[in-house]
Amino acid sequence: MSDADIARRALALLDLTDLADDATTEGARALCGRAVSGPVPVAAVCLWPRFVATARAELGDGPVRIATVVNFPDGGTPIAPVLRETEEALEAGADEIDLVLPWRAVLAGQTTAATAMVRNVKMRCGDRLLKVILETGEYPDLDKVRAASELAIGAGADFIKTSTGKTARSASIPAARVMLGVIGMTARPVGLKPSGGIRTLADAKSYLDLADAIMGSDWATPATFRFGASGLHAALVAAIGGSAPDAAPQGNY
């Protein structure tokens, strides 16, 4: 497969993201414009809850879905405000919710409250996608990544996602391999979303190769696999156009 073909494949799996602390309404509009103007539409845009209504107005009922984040980025908000924020985002037009797992509580063995949060957010999502962010870069070992993956899926996650992109360590191939192993042992369909630090065509290819090797070459579709990234979009568009596919864009996401 050529670089351009790989880039087209990855672009269709992208959650084009703007979760900058200084994000603006104009920036949200621009993000939506980029989402639909490239050689391949992206899978979704992912932005702060306050911009969901703007994204809905820009994208309408087109193919690009609207994702937003709750309990983000620290994962320490009490359940009641998280549920309120989820309900408000869904009412504003969100198609997908990316929920940060209360990962510090999980690492401390306090799994009951974390399970309840995932389960209750999923109840509010109904048939809309729930992606649960594990924040794998903060875990001391891969056994903890495996346990958190099992917890999130057991509580109803439609996707498990590596990272917020707001910590020093984000997505990694070892963590993604463990997460895919848990997904492969799950009776129902569950997706994977690597996010944070994925900036180049080579980065994207490494995760696609991993998914192909573990799950099969036809598994990774927008229904089962997403990239969470902001700068990756420019690298993929450049690769499709035949220029500098691996020039790393600036930024943390």
UniProtKB/TrEMBL annotation:
This protein's UniProt keywords: Lyase, Schiff base
UniProt entry tagged with the keyword Lyase: yes
UniProt-listed InterPro entries: Aldolase_TIM, DeoC, DeoC/FbaB/LacD_aldolase
EC number: 4.1.2.4
Record pathway: Carbohydrate degradation; 2-deoxy-D-ribose 1-phosphate degradation; D-glyceraldehyde 3-phosphate and acetaldehyde from 2-deoxy-alpha-D-ribose 1-phosphate: step 2/2
Lineage: superkingdom: Bacteria
GO cellular component annotations of the record: cytoplasm
Biological processes annotated in GO: carbohydrate catabolic process; deoxyribonucleotide catabolic process
Pfam families tied to this protein: DeoC
GO molecular function, one term: deoxyribose-phosphate aldolase activity
Catalyzed reactions: 2-deoxy-D-ribose 5-phosphate = D-glyceraldehyde 3-phosphate + acetaldehyde
SUPFAM superfamilies, A to Z: Aldolase (SSF51569)
Family: Belongs to the DeoC/FbaB aldolase family. DeoC type 2 subfamily.
PANTHER family: DEOXYRIBOSE-PHOSPHATE ALDOLASE
Name of this chain's protein: Deoxyribose-phosphate aldolase
Organism: Bosea thiooxidans
